[in-house]
């Protein structure tokens, strides 16, 4: 193989990763991990548990300081991390910090889910041709695998409703009548689809009250609002989606464009909070989703919050800034409204 290929970029999905012409993938974010334990700043405890044995997939559980001696059970948050379906884990420093802060602010139990992200095997995928010897080359763990893993995590959570499973934190401290889903970017996309699935097939003993969608990764074939001025960024988003889901019908696939999903009205919760950022390319998709839920007569309550002068997922890297703190307080208020 030409050695020069190792330095030539075939596909650039910055700031997530790059694929080189020799098939090598360079991940630019989401590669660092931190262990669970007691967070000294928030006094939130965490630990990792396997929820899907056959794939060795884990979730990181979070318990606030006062849960043990409070004498009452707390709302449960199931969180799905972002990263374009291709990078990040619940164990990265940014997500670990975010969940510690979220759990402390809202006084909740949290399960941060690790699902199968899309990866590239250099020996099995040629990004220049995608075909060799008549066989299609594709990423490993493509969508919809992440959705199936995420649903399996919810079923695992639900298995603790009767206190028969071995994870004491879920058995002893969770009020399964007050369950929420959340995620940012691709994780918000997943949270939305888990809400749709819950509307079709409710988990026994679990009451999904609400969903918090943070800078949701929704898209569409035709540009809307300011997207038309961002052709290069649009091309990156289009390419990332097609890379993540090789079998997709395109950018109007209901998996990425919920507005064309005939099941949108089946969203199985009573409240939704959409959070967008003013400078985020995906901003208008979040607003469009908010208006669509109202338009179709969905019976729940939908709210929206926009962070001014901020870009996509800013709160993950600037968690102590004024806008990030404001976001966190709004999310905590949303969860605790009518649940205390």
Automatic annotation (TrEMBL):
SUPFAM superfamilies: alpha/beta-Hydrolases. Residues 77-116, 137-316 form the Alpha/beta hydrolase fold-3 domain. One of its GO terms (molecular function) is hydrolase activity. It holds the Pfam family Abhydrolase_3. InterPro entries: AB_hydrolase_3, AB_hydrolase_fold, Carboxylest/Gibb_receptor, Lipase_GDXG_put_SER_AS. The active site is at 185. PANTHER family: ARYLACETAMIDE DEACETYLASE, CARBOXYLESTERASE 12-RELATED. Belongs to the 'GDXG' lipolytic enzyme family. This is Alpha/beta hydrolase fold-3 domain-containing protein.
């Amino acid at each position: 193989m030409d050695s020069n290929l190792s330095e030539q970029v075939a596909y650039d999905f910055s700031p997530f990763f790059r694929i080189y012409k020799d098939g090598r993938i360079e991940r630019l974010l989401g590669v660092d991990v931190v262990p669970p334990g007691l967070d000294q700043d928030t006094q939130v405890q965490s630990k990792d548990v396997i929820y899907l044995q056959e794939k060795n997939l884990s979730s990181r559980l979070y318990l606030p300081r006062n849960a043990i001696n409070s004498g009452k059970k707390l709302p449960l948050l199931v969180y799905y991390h972002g990263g374009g379906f291709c990078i990040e884990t619940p164990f990265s420093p940014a997500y670990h910090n975010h969940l510690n802060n979220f759990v402390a602010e809202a006084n909740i139990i949290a399960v941060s889910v690790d699902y199968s992200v899309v990866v590239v095997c250099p020996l099995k995928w040629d990004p220049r041709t995608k075909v060799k010897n008549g066989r299609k080359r594709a990423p490993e763990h493509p969508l919809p695998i992440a959705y199936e893993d995420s649903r399996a995590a919810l079923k695992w959570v639900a298995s603790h409703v009767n206190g028969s499973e071995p994870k004491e934190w879920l058995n002893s401290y969770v009020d399964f009548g007050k369950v929420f889903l959340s995620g940012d970017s691709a994780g918000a996309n997943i949270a939305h689809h888990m809400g749709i699935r819950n509307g079709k097939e409710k988990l026994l003993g679990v009451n999904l009250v609400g969903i918090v969608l943070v800078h949701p990764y929704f898209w569409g074939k035709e540009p809307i609002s300011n997207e038309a001025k961002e052709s290069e960024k649009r091309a990156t988003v289009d390419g990332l989606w097609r890379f993540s889901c090789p079998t997709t019908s395109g950018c109007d696939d209901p998996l990425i464009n919920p507005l064309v999903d005939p099941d949108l009205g089946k969203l199985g919760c009573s409240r939704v909070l959409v959070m967008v950022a003013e400078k985020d390319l995906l901003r208008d998709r979040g607003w469009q989703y908010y208006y669509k839920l109202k338009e179709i007569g969905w019976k729940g309550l939908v709210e929206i919050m926009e962070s001014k002068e901020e870009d996509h997922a800013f709160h993950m890297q600037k968690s102590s800034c004024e806008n990030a703190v404001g976001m966190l307080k709004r999310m905590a208020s949303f969860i605790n409204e009518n649940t205390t």
